[in-house]
Amino acid sequence: MDKYYTKGHVLNYMARRSQMIDYTDLNWCVGHNKTEAPDGEYPVMCQKFDYNTDNESDYVWFRAKTKVKVSGGLIDLETAMTASAEIINECGYWGRYIENFEFTKAVSTSVKPQVYFYVNFGS
Fold first, then answer.
1. Domain containing 42: what range?
2. What is the pTM of this model?
3. Domains in the chain: how many in total?
4. How far apart are CA 56 and CA 58, in angstroms?
């Protein structure tokens, strides 16, 4: 079933998917996989509209179950893209391009987790 969503003054089109996507459906457009994050595993998060609802006020945080691995100053692309696909499946966004993947430190101690990778998508 096709459905139209209005978000602000922009009309976005989204076809409801009967199948979930996986990391092989995504395109890494960041240009590199370097990071200043220390070696370890980190959560991947994104703030986006929940396109699975009709409520325009559902601009929420999404967090992947898979953590991204970092070793030697490099982001492991398979875990980064797997986590990104989980977020896309959860929020219902149609884009397939990872445009930003940034190591982020929370500015407030009330934000959990304190460090994570922020992912941004494009279509």
1. 21-122
2. 0.81
3. 1
4. 6
